[in-house]
Design goal:
38 strands, 974 residues
């Protein structure tokens, strides 16, 4: 192309993917720089200036990214490393590195002097490079116009650009009017089209990317009682629309399956405390109680997600959260507030040394405080490093106690870049918690929670081994709040001829089958393999390999080593099934195995299969008992069926060993009860179970809902998150501001099966049910849902009162009837005669009540079945002596204040006999003392019927309590 008479080769400059950075502190290390920019984006390379390691020389770098978004992010935001604000600008390699301009003219060597980097480039110039570039740009802008498209694939982006960004799009158009820029949205809102000069089009695209990158997201799980149901109603949807409009955001409600199983409580008749919903029982293999009763638990997961009063973060002495995996993860979850607070502390505090700690507020982490600790590197195994780590844990525990914490969550400190051996670090961690418990039994710290990163397989394996060894060597302390064991430890026997038992869970048939899984004819069977996919390891895998042939093994080998917890699907070779789903198992923990089985079921469902067979996972080589294996398999089935399958209609659990199958049948029957599928027949002795099941019947669909957690995701700009979330929670709080309190003495004696059903029903209806006092239940949620659960609680209370009434009647009869053992007689109640079998004599039988009813009572009416009615009310004649006695006593305090319209006699024989028995006992105990007083009590009309049937008790105290008897002297009867 001619330019001022010179032929010039013009090539389009590559998109800028690098930055030039200066302004570093003298003490900044290369590792800190690389870690910082790796956090910003997809880092490709960092080139340091030759003078980097020289004192009193400026430190400068060129950072190369893999995409242009990272450049935009780094140049837009402020950048801090070691407390210094960095100077960042885009760096164009083609200008200072390899730009070639060919034409007639002299040769000269160009050395880039701006950046301080020595990069020689041979160039041919007619005139100054800057002038040539300027003229090229002018030429292209004048002669060439281009078009561009920007796709809005996610619906979230379409919502923002169509509804919230019209003003921003207009501003871009105005700012780039000199480039002839035009911007338009297509009719469906899925595409932004723009045109103008090439420079203008590029700028539009960059600005659109910036607008898109500004759309962040933040989520929280719905834990507020009633929030789930409220947001699903029209009123809740209107609230969401209002919040979205006012805060320019988009709110999504999503569901995710809970990992933990449903309640695992026994069906005994012992009373059960209805505690808060937050308590979660873990597998016993992961739990240890010290002799002081303090709980030590460990699990695989993410420390930034642990919900505890205190979380511990491992940091370097410079307080830089960008360095280190633990600090980096916690910094991301906490938000910028955590790093900012540390930066302020650094200005007022000397640098932390090895073994030091400091605490801050948590930012967005689910805790009250964060304790930052500085560990030392491993230097070969002298006792100094071990002592520093032990002392570090002790300081963390001391600070947590000082802050009044009840629980503390700790990551596995020291095993990353610091180089501590896993066995040493884990051993010190466990011993530190136990030692602190013994030395500080009065500390408020009750729970020590160790969280090992789920991707750290070596850490998980070491914790399993060390924790198990520690439990064997130390006798556990008393376990608090333990659930009653539901399953026996000995094998559960089944009939020798047992072959199969099945139930229905929604649309899925669930079976337990005694047999050989290699002979199954399902669409797929499940297998257990190790990470290297070797089918010669493990009894089950070897049996399947022997039956299916070598083709499956070859197919597995072609896939290479797999991550623990993943699944691999292959053909089935010579088997009668279509597929084999191989579960890659890394450990024998309940949580890990359950996750593997759940993923295998989801994999089969995603393949469109209708039937799948599962072995007794864990019952052999993985070391779990029969009961433990059954819990793993059925725990996974519960989790997988929390949401209906798309294609699976039959799940068969195939158990080979007869000694194991009993545990699986027990689990199947337990699931049958949970889902309400054809309850087994009950004897009359189980009336309390029948009454609770009748009062609290729930459909299978309702019971499966409780296994799903809902999450609110807010999409928008950072400054809108807090306001949007607060508005949502305030709206829910206003709608759910009417809790219900139920107080009754029978509540403290409710059987476990009744309280279990109440808790399940409350979760289904999104109501929080807990027991602040032994005889009190408190309900929180939407008023309608609260009233539904209130009705269920009332039904249970009523049924328990009837059971109590029957027991009292039986007790009265036992006292009123004289029993003769082996008395040879035949009694004909129709003729009221008794025949003595030994002598043949016939005698007349007359009934004599030990506690006769009052003479003035009318005969008790009988119902259709011929039984006497429980309650009968008789209106007294005004001229009767009974009427006059009551009238006289009433007017002693109420004359001139009230008039009598009617007086009724309450005839309730059962309540009368109960009262007289108690009076008789008191008379015998107190002798001649006056044991009976009469008192008139103001009562609401709707309570009268209840009192007439059930009697008067303290649960009926209310608006009239003490109204007329404040000065009335009452003598306490002993």
């Amino acid at each position: 192309m001619p330019l001022d008479g010179v032929k010039v080769l013009i090539e389009r400059a590559p998109v800028c993917k690098s930055i030039y950075v200066s302004g570093f502190s003298e003490n900044t290390s290369k590792e800190a720089v690389e870690s910082y920019f790796d956090e910003i984006g997809a880092l490709e390379d960092v080139v340091f200036s030759p003078s980097w390691d020289e004192e009193e020389k400026p430190k400068r770098v060129i950072v190369y990214f893999k995409d242009k978004k990272s450049v935009k992010k780094s140049t837009k935001d402020q950048n801090f490393v070691d407390g210094k604000t960095l100077h960042v600008e885009a760096f164009y390699p083609f200008m200072g590195k390899s730009a070639k301009v060919k034409g007639a003219g002299q040769h000269q060597s160009y050395k880039s002097g701006d950046s301080g980097f020595s990069e020689n480039t041979s160039m041919e110039f007619k005139q100054d490079v800057a002038e040539a570039v300027k003229k090229m740009r002018d030429f292209l802008n004048e002669k060439k116009a281009t078009e561009g498209e920007f796709r809005l694939d996610p619906s979230i982006h379409r919502k923002f650009f169509n509804d919230y960004y019209p003003e921003e799009l207009q501003k871009i158009k105005e700012d780039l009017s000199h480039c002839g820029v035009r911007i338009s949205l297509d009719e469906g809102g899925h595409l932004i089209r723009f045109s103008g000069t090439e420079e203008g089009v590029k700028e539009v695209e960059e600005r659109l990317y910036i607008l898109q990158d500004d759309i962040k997201e933040k989520s929280f799980h719905i834990g507020t009682p009633g929030m789930r149901n409220f947001l699903a109603q029209d009123e809740g949807k209107r609230l969401i629309e209002t919040v979205e409009r006012e805060n320019k955001c988009v709110i999504e409600i999503t569901e995710e399956t809970e990992d933990q199983a449903e309640d695992d409580e026994s069906d005994s008749d012992e009373p059960l405390s209805i505690g808060s919903e937050g308590e979660e029982e873990l597998d016993e293999d992961d739990t240890f109680f010290t002799s002081e009763g303090k709980k030590v638990i460990w699990r695989a997961g993410n420390i930034e997600e642990e919900q505890a009063d205190i979380l511990v973060c491992s940091v370097g002495s410079k307080f830089n959260l960008a360095i280190g995996a633990i600090a980096n993860a916690m910094s991301k979850a906490a938000g910028p507030e955590l790093q900012e607070e540390l930066r302020k502390l650094k200005e007022t505090t000397v640098d932390l040394g090895e073994g030091d700690i400091i605490h801050t507020s948590p930012g967005n982490l689910p805790c009250r405080y964060v304790i930052h600790c500085v560990c030392c590197p491993w230097k070969g195994g002298n006792h100094e490093e071990e002592q520093i780590l032990r002392e570090l844990y002790r300081k963390c525990f001391d600070k947590a106690s000082e802050l009044g914490a009840c629980s503390i969550g700790l990551p596995l400190v020291g095993t990353g870049n610091l180089g501590f051996p896993y066995a040493t670090a884990v051993q010190i961690m466990i011993e530190a918690a136990v030692d602190y418990s013994q030395a500080n039994p009065e500390s408020p710290l009750e729970e020590f929670r160790f969280v090992v990163f789920s991707g750290d397989q070596k850490g998980i394996t070491t914790f399993e081994e060390k924790f198990g060894e520690f439990k064997k060597d130390h006798k556990p302390g008393p376990k608090h709040r333990q659930r009653a064991a539901r399953k026996p430890t000995t094998p559960t026997p089944v009939a020798a001829e047992f072959q199969c038992k099945e139930i229905h869970v929604g649309h899925v048939v669930l079976k337990v089958l005694k047999g050989d899984i290699t002979k199954e004819k399902s669409d797929a069977i499940c297998n257990v393999v190790t990470q290297d996919l070797d089918m010669n390891i493990g009894t089950l895998s070897r049996a399947i390999f022997k039956a299916c042939g070598s083709t499956v093994e070859e197919e597995l080998k072609s896939k290479g080593s797999q991550r623990p917890g993943s699944v691999v699907t292959t053909s089935a070779g010579s088997l009668s099934v279509k597929h084999i789903v191989h579960m890659v198992v890394g450990s024998g923990t309940k949580q890990h195995l359950q996750t593997c089985v759940e993923k295998a079921l989801k994999e089969a469902d995603s393949l469109g299969l209708r039937s799948v067979s599962i072995p007794a996972v864990g019952s052999r080589g993985l070391g779990r008992t029969a009961e433990g294996s059954a819990e793993v398999v059925f725990g996974a089935i519960r989790a997988a069926t929390a949401r209906p399958f798309n294609s699976i209609r039959e799940v068969t659990v195939v158990v080979f060993e007869a000694s194991v199958i009993g545990a699986f049948v027990v689990e199947l029957e337990a699931m049958q009860k949970e889902t309400g599928d054809s309850y087994p027949d009950c004897d009359e002795e189980d009336e309390d179970q029948l009454c609770c099941e009748g009062a609290l019947e729930a459909s299978t669909d309702e019971l499966t809902k409780k296994r799903c957690r809902q999450k609110v995701i807010v999409h928008g700009q950072l400054e809108s998150f807090d306001a949007a979330m607060a508005a949502l929670k305030d709206g829910v709080a206003r709608a759910c501001s009417d809790p219900r309190v139920i107080k009754h003495e029978i509540i403290s004696r409710l059987p476990k099966r009744c309280t279990r059903e109440l808790k399940r029903m409350s979760r289904v209806r999104d109501v929080k049910l807990y027991q602040p006092e032994p005889d009190t239940i408190r309900l929180e949620g939407l008023p309608k849902d609260v009233m539904d659960i209130n009705s269920e609680v009332s039904n249970v209370i009523q049924e328990q009162l009837e059971i109590k009434y029957k027991d009292e009647r039986a007790e009265q009869m036992s006292k009123n009837v004289q029993w003769y053992l082996n008395f040879k007689a035949e009694i004909n109640f129709g003729n009221k005669e008794v025949t003595l079998l030994r002598t043949g004599a016939i005698k007349r039988v007359l009934r004599k009540d030990v506690l006769p009813l009052p003479d003035e009572w009318d005969p008790q009416p009988r119902d259709d079945s011929g039984k006497p009615e429980i309650l009968h009310l008789v209106s007294l004649a005004q001229e009767s002596q009974e009427y006059k006695v009551v009238q006289e006593k009433f007017f002693q305090s109420m004359r001139g204040k009230a008039s009598i319209t009617n007086i009724e006699r309450i005839q309730n024989p059962a309540m009368f006999n109960s009262y007289m028995l108690r009076k008789q006992t008191m008379d015998e105990k107190n002798g001649t003392l006056e044991n009976e007083l009469q008192l008139f009590h103001g009562t609401k009309p709707d309570s009268v019927t209840y009192i007439n049937v059930q009697g008067f008790n303290r649960s009926l105290c209310g608006i009239n309590a003490g109204k007329y008897t404040r000065q009335y002297p009452v003598k306490i009867l002993q």
